[in-house]
Design goal:
This protein folds into two domains: about 170 residues, Spore Coat Polysaccharide Biosynthesis Protein SpsA, Chain A, CATH 3.90.550.10; about 80 residues. With about 250 residues, it is an alpha+beta fold. It is built from eight helices and four strands; from the N terminus they run αβαβαβααβααα.
Length: about 250
């Protein structure tokens, strides 16, 4: 009702709660400006910091992250989570889940899965966008209840973090990872095979080692095969993405 007083405000309603990622996507589709700021309705961040973020974007940055300052709940969990994010993605910011703003094209050029709103920063960094950060004050929540404090949410967030890292690294060069494991396995299989032959020549049994040789060689072949399949899949995905870019 309050929003109806302003012509430049749109209220979007879903039939049910589809989560924050879907809300961001809907907001993106309905937006008309060139800068998107993601601001939660619990009002933990100062509205004045939105202006600071927009000014920073106008200086030439593509995405501006706020990093939380002051006392707040789950500080240890947040620090661990952000440390893992920096370790996995090599991103030059301290906090990936505070107040943030970006150019519209940043969101338009990334594919967000359910709950992947938490990884907008590493996804944007991976796409080559210019990123910086500014301090933002985190206040006590005015509305709503925290949704990320339960053990279940923390575990889901951790596995999502690994999934994003997997997509941004492994899926780009599957043969590099699977091929390396396959090569190591085949090398060990070859060396153990030579050892088993030497032991056999000196009259020792070789059957346990023979089983190990078979296991290592088959594992090596399997990993190489998975690497080849991954390369084919990656090639198809890249071609589809290229077609999608041309159609835009």
């Amino acid at each position: 009702a309050e929003a109806s007083k302003y012509n430049n405000i749109k209220v979007i309603k879903h039939l049910k709660n589809y989560g924050k990622t879907e809300a961001i996507i809907s907001g993106l589709k309905a937006s008309s400006g060139e800068i998107i700021v993601i601001y939660d309705a619990d009002r933990q961040f100062l509205p004045e910091d939105i202006v600071k973020i927009v000014k920073k974007i106008e200086e030439g940055y593509d995405l501006v992250c706020g990093y939380k300052v002051g006392k707040y709940e789950k500080k240890l969990v947040s620090k661990i989570y952000n440390f893992l994010a920096r370790l996995l993605f090599r991103i030059p910011v301290r906090d990936i889940n505070a107040l943030k703003g970006m150019r519209k094209e940043v969101l338009e050029n990334m594919k967000l899965r359910k709950d992947w709103h938490r990884y907008i920063v590493p996804l944007a960094f991976h796409l080559g966008y210019k990123i910086t950060e500014i301090p933002v004050i985190l206040r006590k929540r005015e509305y709503g209840l925290p949704k990320y404090s339960s053990k279940k949410r923390i575990i889901i967030g951790f596995f999502d973090l690994l999934a994003v890292a997997f997509q941004l690294t492994f899926l780009k060069k599957p043969m590099l990872y699977f091929g390396t494991i396959g090569l190591v396995s085949l090398t060990f299989g070859f060396l153990v095979g030579i050892l088993s032959i030497i032991l056999r020549l000196f009259g020792h049994g070789y059957r346990p080692l023979l089983y190990l040789v078979i296991l290592l060689i088959l594992s090596g072949i399997l990993f190489f095969s998975l690497g080849l399949i991954g390369e084919v899949q990656t090639s198809i995905i890249e071609r589809l993405e290229d077609i999608e870019r041309k159609l835009k």
